[in-house]
């Protein structure tokens, strides 16, 4: 074989190898894109881990692969959705979402509705609100939305009066009457349950009380009424494209699952939660 023939033969094999590599790369990217399209990534706060994992296991049978990402604070899940790091999050109610959008101008909206829960006023030391002493220490959440929700509940319980009970962002400065001269201590929402042993009264979330093993959620001295605006939402960007209806099917599974109801009964307490979509 002449040198020219050998060179041509060699170049042919090199060319074929390049073609194979190029097609291989395209094929790899196609497979990865297909896998990505079949994965639904949802950001959650820890109390909802078991709940949503149950739904994830159910929809896996339909070829929908769900990745749950836990966040320890109440700001990062919206940042992650806004930055397209995750598809959706599940941790906030409509008032919280509305305030977050107002503060950040994020392009977020509620894609679907999950469950909500009662909140209540709890005390380890006292068996009634009337028994609370003067200058009692009351622990409430520090974030604007849940702080306002606590003040509204304290108003309804007759312990304080605020300017406008319909103001979803009432602050301590909106208190116009405080007969017992209650002393308010603000902590991060999940930490309210941990104050149960020391404070005179806390504004409590049933699931955090259960997680901390501090108190039976049913032992509240005063409970709020059901209000659907406090149901937890599945939140996405407005321009989110729900390819293959992954999120829609996930939400449908959530809303119709008996296992979800059982876990809500266990984590929040029977009759302590409500279906926000009904």
UniProtKB/TrEMBL annotation:
Does the UniProt entry include the keyword Transmembrane helix?
Answer: yes
Which Gene3D superfamilies does this UniProt record tie to the protein?
Periplasmic binding protein-like II
What does the entry list under GO cellular component?
A: membrane
* Entry-linked Pfam families: Lipoprotein_9
TM stretches of this protein: 12-31
Q: Which family does it belong to?
A: Belongs to the NlpA lipoprotein family.
> What protein name does the entry list?
Methionine transporter
- Species source reads Acinetobacter bereziniae LMG 1003 = CIP 70.12
């Amino acid at each position: 074989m002449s040198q020219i023939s050998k060179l041509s033969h060699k170049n042919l094999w090199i060319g074929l190898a390049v073609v194979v590599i190029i097609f291989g790369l395209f094929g790899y990217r196609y497979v990865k894109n297909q896998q990505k399209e079949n994965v639904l990534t949802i950001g959650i706060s820890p109390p909802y881990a078991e709940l949503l994992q149950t739904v994830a296991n159910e929809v896996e049978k339909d070829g929908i692969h769900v990745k749950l990402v836990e966040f320890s604070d109440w700001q990062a899940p919206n940042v992650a959705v806004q930055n397209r790091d995750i598809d959706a999050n599940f941790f906030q109610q409509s008032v919280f979402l509305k305030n977050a959008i107002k503060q950040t101008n994020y392009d977020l909206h509620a894609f679907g509705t999950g469950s909500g829960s009662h909140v209540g006023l709890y005390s380890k030391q006292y068996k009634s609100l009337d028994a609370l002493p003067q200058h009692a220490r009351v622990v409430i959440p520090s974030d604007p939305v849940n702080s306002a929700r606590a003040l509204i509940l304290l108003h309804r319980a007759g312990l304080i009066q605020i300017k406008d009970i319909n103001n979803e962002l009432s602050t301590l400065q909106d208190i116009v009457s405080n007969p017992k001269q209650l002393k308010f201590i603000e902590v991060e929402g999940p930490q309210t349950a941990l104050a149960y042993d020391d404070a005179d009264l806390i504004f409590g979330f049933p699931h955090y009380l259960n997680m901390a093993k501090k108190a039976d959620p049913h032992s509240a001295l005063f409970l709020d009424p059901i209000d659907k605006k406090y149901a937890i939402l599945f939140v996405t960007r407005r321009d989110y494209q729900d390819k293959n209806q992954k999120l829609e099917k996930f939400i449908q599974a959530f809303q119709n699952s008996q296992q979800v109801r059982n876990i809500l009964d266990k984590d929040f307490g029977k009759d302590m939660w409500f279906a926000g979509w009904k």
